[in-house]
Amino acid sequence: MRKLKPDEYSTVLPLMDSIQNKAVYALSVIHGTQQGSVFVNEGKQITSVFITSCGGFYGLAGDETNDAFAQDVIQYMNDESNHPDFFALGVYTKAWENRLHDYRIQHSRKISRTYYRFNQDRFIKSYEEYDITLEKPFKYYSLDLDISTKYRGQFYPYYQLVWSSAEQFCAHGIGHFIMKHDELVSVCTSPYVGGGYAEIDIITIEEYQRKGLASVVGVHFIQDCLSRNLIPNWSCHTDNAASNKLARKLGFEEIGEHSMYWYHV
Q1: Distant-in-sequence, close-in-space partners of 126: CB < 8 Å, separation ≥ 6
Q2: CA–CA gap between residue 99 and residue 95 (Å, rounded)
Q3: Residue ranges, the chain, pLDDT below 50
Q4: What pLDDT does 20 receive?
C-alpha cells in the first residue's frame, strides 16, 4: 500500500460512504482537523483505504479483495512502533470482517461494537422542554481553557493524543462537564470532530453514576452540536449495557454491530 499526501486525502471520501455510522476519527484526519495517515492500494485507481488517527483508532473501507493491500495492513498492525499506547481497528462491513478472519493481529482481541445513527427529530421531541438544572453541590461547566487543561492533564490523558494542546481542543472540540467541589465527576466530550460530525465520549465517575448526570452532559453536548451544524455520532462496545441504553435515550437509533480489533495485552 502507499501513503497519501495530505492534499490527496479527499480522494478517498467516496470510499467512506459505505460506513453508515461515520468514522469521525477518519473524517477528522481527511479534513485536516487532527493528525493521522491515509494509506491506499497500489495502482492508479483507489479502491481500498486504511486510515490511522493520532489517538489509535484505525479504519478500513473499500474493496477487501486486494491480497497485497490486506497483507500490508496486517503488517502495519503487527509493527508495534506504529502505535501509541492503544489501538482499535474498526471493521464496518461483513466482507472486511471475513477478510481479516484468517489473520492474526498481535496484542488485540476481537470485540463487537454497536453503531448508531442520530435521529434529530426524536431528540428534539424528547428534550425540547427538558430541565437540565442541577442540584447542589453539582455544577455544570462548558469547555474553556482551564477545564481543557485539567481534563487533558489529570482526568483523561488520552486527550493529549487526540488533541495536541488544550488550545486545539478548545478551538475544534466540544466539551461539557459536571463538577462537584472542583472535581470532575461527569463529562461528555469529543475525541474527534470532522466531516460535519462530532464523536461522543461520556464518562461518569462510578461513585456518581445512576444520578442522571450522563444524560445532562449528553443533552448539552448534542444541543451544542446542533447549534454548530454538527451531527453527533455514537458507537460503543456491544456488551456495554449502560452506554447502549443511554444512546437510545438520547435519540440514537441502532444501525448494527461490527467487529473491532481492540488493543489488549
Answers
A1: 251
A2: 6
A3: none
A4: 80
